[in-house]
Amino acid sequence: MATHSWRDTYKGMSSDNIKGLVLALSSSFFIGASFIVKKKGLKKAGASGVRAGVGGYSYLYEPLWWVGMITMIVGEIANFAAYAFAPAILVTPLGALSIIISAALAHIILRERLHLFGILGCVLCVVGSTTIVLHAPQEREIESVKEVWDLAMDPAFLFYAALVMTTVFILIFHFIPQYGQTHIMVYIGVCSLVGSLSVMSVKALGIALKLTLSGMNQLVYPQTWIFTLVVITCVLTQMNYLNKALDTFNTAVVSPIYYVMFTSLTILASVIMFKDWDRQSPTQVVTEMCGFVTILSGTFLLHKTKDMADGLQTISRNSKHSEEDGFGDSDGIPLRRQDTLRTT
């Protein structure tokens, strides 16, 4: 009886969820690496031109930045495909793995030291991700992009979208000119809010393409192209402000804070639009939330210990009056604007 009950509770993941899981995992590897490559490109561009953090676009002429950009695009394509097969509650939290990749590569390439407790944070991210994977809801059966459009036109989601857009405009036109260079939450807030809408549109577009490839052409519906326009607009906005955040603040701080805000808002948007939790028991919902909190704890621990390590390294370098590694001018105070000799 006990074995039968266990099997009833854990019937296994559907084939679509497995495809989404594999795509999401590969996406995390590409995106995690792209953060580091883009950071290196931004540093090189900033040494010979106007930094992105103060409005410059010299990084567009830097090949290394483009390598990072292409790597991120590959990761985003895999992520895009994952949303077509699996619910956002499964796909989005797996982005925590990109933080682990980013932290490990930052330790090796950017010399941003990874503490022992940072490793513990990585472990917590893996545990939390595994918990969510094992209890993720099955993907909602959708037969037309019109059905997704009806979900988007639900009053609850329309209210959420209006609230997000209002907040984004306030951040861009009021807070960024005053606080963008000193408060990391301003840039990250824009990226995360816009990102929650882009994921919903990406999921809708992914479903439309999946249905089209299966023989049910969705490209004839105007809703498909509306979702495409929203995706393009949101992605360009995210890319612009994420570049500013990466160039202005420490990579080890940008990555986890962006992940936490982006994931939280995306899950909220998905619950409102696709009503994922309506197909789950209270136990499954609580377990997923515990997994998510575990991931949040891991990212917080990772970034706090990274902050401590960077501070110790900066003090050590200053006491020895050493500039041997060439990174002493930009990564010492991760939560504030990086000091630079460049005038604006």
UniProtKB/TrEMBL annotation:
Quaternary structure annotation from Swiss-Prot or TrEMBL: Homodimer.
A single GO molecular function term of this UniProt record: magnesium ion transmembrane transporter activity
Name of the protein in its database record: Probable magnesium transporter
UniProt keyword Signal present: no
A Pfam family assignment: Mg_trans_NIPA
Organism annotation: Quillaja saponaria (Soap bark tree)
Ranges that cross the membrane: 20-37, 58-78, 84-109, 116-137, 157-177, 184-205, 225-242, 249-273
Compositional bias segments (type: Basic and acidic residues): 334-344
